[in-house]
Amino acid sequence: MKITADLHSHSGYAGGVGNIQLKDIAETMQYKGINVYGTGDCLLLQRSNELRKELISCDNGLYKIKDNSKANFLLQTEVILTTKGRSSYMKNKLMAHHIILFPNFESIDKMQAYMIKWKQKNTIGRPYIVTECRERLIDILYEIKNIHPLIEIIPAHIVTPDGVMGSANRLSHPEEFYGDFFKEINALETGLSADPGMLCEVEGLSHLTMVSFSDGHSSALNRIGREFTVFDVNEVSYKEIINAIRNNKILFTAEFMPEEGRYHLTGHRANKQGHKEAIYFVDNPPKDYICPICNKKMAPGVADWIKQLPKTKKRSKHNFIHLLPLIEVIAYAYSLKSIKSPKVCKTYLDILQSFETEIDLWQSSEEKIRLLLTKSINSNIVNAIIKVKNQDFYYDPPGFDGNYGVLKINL
């Protein structure tokens, strides 16, 4: 059977977001067609206590909330690991974000105790684990892994500037960070600014399972499931999901078009100090990455940085599609900026009268979409859906320096 999962999210404890209720997430999951969702920030004591109160164990490593029997939650956090290294960008510091998946609250308890033993702060939703040398970093990774055989550690958004293979670290191979622990790494998260087609060319990455998740900080329709992974499993359970990750039992991932991602190209935003206008480079950025407008250093975009990484001779195949949230497609077709417009929201619900979920819509044939929607939905909306399904959309300008790309659909 196949299940659709989005296993990287954040709660209100991550900072910069408001209070995010599990019941709102569960409701959005059902609209979108997400079967399993990562809780976000489960290592933080306040969050883990909150999750204990609100979640009910399904006795399969997954959890539900009291008022929703369909939405499954998986205990998950993001952790930032740092150590001393040779990165010139980070002042001799290596730093990388990681997703950690937990099979139960007992394993979270043990890691919280380890955080105290390691004298690490655990006061924010996405905690840092700081080590003085790579050997200590590797020891800690093994200690986390040995808490429970089903704990999974996944490098997050692997080639964004704060990913392990991102431009901030200046590494040529993952083993430069992980040492012999790299053999315990089974998967990588592609991130919003790259896709498997780009990453399978990079040496040391192609053989890994490639998963895609939203890294969401909201329960909104354009955040949950904006990227997702479809697993091939025997049943809906935590163990089966981990087995699928470890054995590359992935039917496909749904990805941002990389040009939409906030770090895809090299450039500087218009609101940077010394700027009256933005600048970005589709090709051939300055060799020293010095901005020609403000004369300050630019962080290499993901597209540029991947070109500099060593390439593999053994590319493996990873199935993926480019998608964007249906609510954004509707707003674009109506020429409205807000996805919260009553007109946009009503059209979204009207469309889902004909399809089980949003993901069901995207997996339907063009003929079926036209058959079910043409009589009840504005023709411009239907055409926009078909264009996106056929990958006939782009971003101008593309994403760079923290700005998302600007959507264009060829209507």
The geometry reads as globular
Please state the structural category.
Answer: alpha/beta
CATH topology of the largest domain: TIM Barrel
CATH class wording of the largest domain: Alpha Beta
Backbone CA Rg? 21 Å
Please render the helix and strand layout as text.
Layout: E1 2-6, H1 22-32, E2 36-38, H2 45-54, E3 55-57, E4 63-65, E5 68-84, E6 93-102, H3 105-117, E7 128-130, H4 134-145, E8 152-155, H5 175-178, E9 187-189, H6 196-199, E10 209-211, E11 228-232, H7 238-246, E12 250-255, E13 266-268, E14 279-281, H8 302-308, E15 320-322, H9 326-333, H10 342-351, H11 358-362, H12 366-373, H13 379-389, E16 393-395, E17 407-409
Parallel strand pairs: 1-2, 2-5, 5-7, 9-10, 12-15
Antiparallel strand pairs: 1-11, 3-4, 4-5, 5-6, 6-8, 11-12, 13-14, 16-17
Helix pairs in contact: 9-10, 9-13
Structure commentary:
The chain is α/β, with parallel strands linked by helices and 411 residues long. The chain has 2 domains: 2-260, TIM Barrel, CATH 3.20.20; 325-395. The protein is built from 13 helices and 17 strands. It has helices at 22-32, 45-54, 105-117, 134-145, 175-178, 196-199, 238-246, 302-308, 326-333, 342-351, 358-362, 366-373, 379-389, and strands at residues 2-6, 36-38, 55-57, 63-65, 68-84, 93-102, 128-130, 152-155, 187-189, 209-211, 228-232, 250-255, 266-268, 279-281, 320-322, 393-395, 407-409. The strands form 4 sheets. Strands 1, 2, 3, 4, 5, 6, 7, 8, 11, 12 and 15 form an 11-stranded mixed beta sheet that branches. A two-stranded parallel ribbon has the order 9-10. Strand 4 (63-65) and strand 5 form a beta hairpin. Helix 9 (326-333) crosses helix 10 and helix 9 crosses helix 13. The protein is globular. The model has no long low-confidence stretch (mean pLDDT 95).
